Amino acid sequence: MRRTARLLTGTALAVAAAGFVTAPAYADDDDGGGGLEVFPSQAVPGTQITVNTAECGAEGTAAGDAGAVGAGVFTLAPSTHDGEAVGQFRVPPSAQPGTYEIVAKCAEGDHQVTGDLVVTLTAPRGQEPRGSVKTGVGGALGPDPVQTAAGVTALAVAAAGGTWLLHRRARGDGI
Q1: If both were cysteines, with which of 30, 64, 157, 169 could 74 make a disulfide (CB 3.0 to 4.6 Å apart)?
Q2: Is residue 108 within 8 Å of residue 57, measured between CB atoms?
């Protein structure tokens, strides 16, 4: 039993670690140069997407178009990171699963770069939601120990009362 638990734990950790390694998507432009980086390259509807490229020069800007996925246009502005232009958009909640081409056209000249975004209905490994859900059902040491103790006391009183009533009924005293 302990051996199986260790094996399953090790396998789960290996799968989780592999899920954290996600690479951004790169696509070559028409001229065979660099491309458009889309991160994360796989997302669910509602995810914030960051797009960047170094193809527009150190001070260059670009007009981004995520209309294929339904997000519309966005602007890529110069950033401090290696002369890249960076922009963001959000995948709309109505986006359907599939692969969508994201386009950025540099403000200077006719230079255009593209990248792919894969939309799925399930979160990629390593991007699962984290945290707790407020369900109203607390644990033994929930957020308020006084309320937990009051609940336990109420259950104990109810159990004792039920036992007393069943005992009276068994003796024939009636209720």
Answers
A1: 64
A2: yes
CA gap 82, 37 in Å, rounded:
14
What is the rounded distance in angstroms from the CA atom of residue 118 to the CA atom of residue 73? 18
Question: Whole-angstrom Cα distance, residue 64 to residue 71?
Answer: 10
Residue type, 61: T
**Cα 6 from chain centre:** 28
pLDDT in tens, 59-118: 788 999 999 999 999 999 988 777 788 999 999 999 999 999 999 999 887 889 999 999
**Which has the closest alpha carbon to 93: 39, 47, 51, 130?**
47
pTM over 0.90: no
3-state SS class at 112: strand
- The first and second tokens of residue 26, run together, are 């790169």
Query: Of residues 24 and 170, which shows the higher confidence score?
Result: 170
Dihedrals phi, psi of 99, to nearest 5 degrees: -105, 130
Q: CA–CA separation, 96 vs 29, rounded Å?
A: 26
